């Protein structure tokens, strides 16, 4: 049975009744048989440091929830250049950082990319990232390097399939296959290779 609501508690309605506040130390409980509905246009904001508890009382921070949900998003980077180049519309001397708000990153080029490059970003623990080279020109041969620390950059660590630190991973495409890699962020800023497919080369940290 629900308890009576008292004044000056940690869970209350703001004046006007349009906003319920759960202050620090307060708690909202949905009992067995209860139901909480967020109608169209509504949202729940989790501030930094907030946690959500479910799955047999296991806690998940707002950052972990964001990282988990990012795997459902995808983007494609298309570049028209050939030869060795950074995959960026603006060009430049350093590979651009792969967007940190996506979980699937497709690299597509109109012709043979023989030595392209992109840079890993510093991820959040629990985040997953799938990178695939899929050239638009079917049957063409291409190569893209995914760069980490040790390749002229700092702040992003990459662990290979044999648990050794890497400076880069090369993804190649041919008529027969395309290279791809699945990465898991095991600690903030540190990625680990989970699985690879197609033509993939791991370059040890030097």
List the helices and strands and how they pair.
Blueprint: E1 11-13, E2 20-22, E3 51-54, E4 58-61, H1 62-69, E5 74-79, E6 104-109, E7 116-119, E8 128-133, E9 142-147, E10 157-159, E11 165-173, E12 180-187, E13 190-197, E14 199-204
Parallel strand pairs: 5-6, 6-8, 7-9, 10-13
Antiparallel strand pairs: 1-2, 3-4, 8-12, 9-11, 10-11, 11-14, 12-13
Describe this protein's structure.
The chain has 206 residues and is mainly beta. The chain has a domain of 134 residues. Helices cover 4% and strands 37% of the residues. The protein contains one helix and 14 strands, in the order ββββαββββββββββ. The strands form three sheets. Strands 5, 6, 7, 8, 9, 10, 11, 12, 13 and 14 form a ten-stranded mixed beta sheet that branches. A two-stranded antiparallel sheet has the order 1-2. The protein has a two-stranded antiparallel ribbon with strand order 3-4. A hairpin with a 5-residue loop joins strand 10 and strand 11. The radius of gyration is 23 Å and the shape is elongated. The relative contact order is 0.12. The model has no long low-confidence stretch (mean pLDDT 76).
What are the key terms here?
1 helix; mainly beta; single chain; 206 residues
Helicity, as a percent range: under 10%
User: Unreliable stretches, pLDDT < 50, 5 or more residues?
Assistant: none
Total number of beta strands:
14
Tally of helical segments: 1
Distance between the termini: 64 Å
**Mind summarizing the main beta sheet?**
10 strands, mixed
Element-by-element helix/strand order: EEEEHEEEEEEEEEE
Please report which band the strand proportion falls in: under 5%, 5-15%, 15-25%, 25-35%, 35-45% or over 45%: 35-45%
Shape type:
elongated
Oligomer: single chain
Mean pLDDT: 76
Q: What structural class do you assign from the helix and strand content?
A: mainly beta
Work out the radius of gyration. Answer: 23 Å
């Amino acid at each position: 049975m629900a308890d009576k609501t008292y004044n000056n508690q940690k869970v209350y309605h703001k004046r006007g009744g349009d906003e319920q506040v759960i202050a620090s130390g307060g708690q909202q409980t949905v009992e067995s048989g209860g139901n909480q509905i967020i109608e169209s246009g509504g949202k729940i904001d989790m501030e930094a440091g907030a946690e959500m508890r479910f799955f047999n009382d296991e806690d998940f921070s707002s950052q972990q929830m964001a990282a988990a949900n990012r795997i459902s998003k995808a983007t494609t980077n298309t570049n028209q250049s050939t030869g060795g180049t950074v995959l960026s519309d603006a060009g430049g001397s350093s590979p651009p950082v792969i967007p940190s708000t996506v979980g699937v990153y497709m690299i597509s080029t109109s012709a043979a990319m023989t030595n392209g490059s992109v840079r890993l970003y510093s991820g959040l623990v629990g985040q997953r990232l799938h990178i695939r080279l899929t050239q638009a020109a079917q049957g063409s041969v291409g190569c893209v390097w995914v760069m980490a620390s040790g390749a002229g950059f700092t702040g992003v660590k990459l662990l290979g399939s044999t648990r050794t630190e890497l400076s880069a991973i090369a993804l190649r495409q041919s008529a027969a296959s395309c290279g791809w890699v699945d990465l898991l962020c095991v600690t903030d800023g540190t990625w680990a290779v989970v699985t690879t497919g197609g033509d993939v080369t791991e370059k040890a940290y030097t």
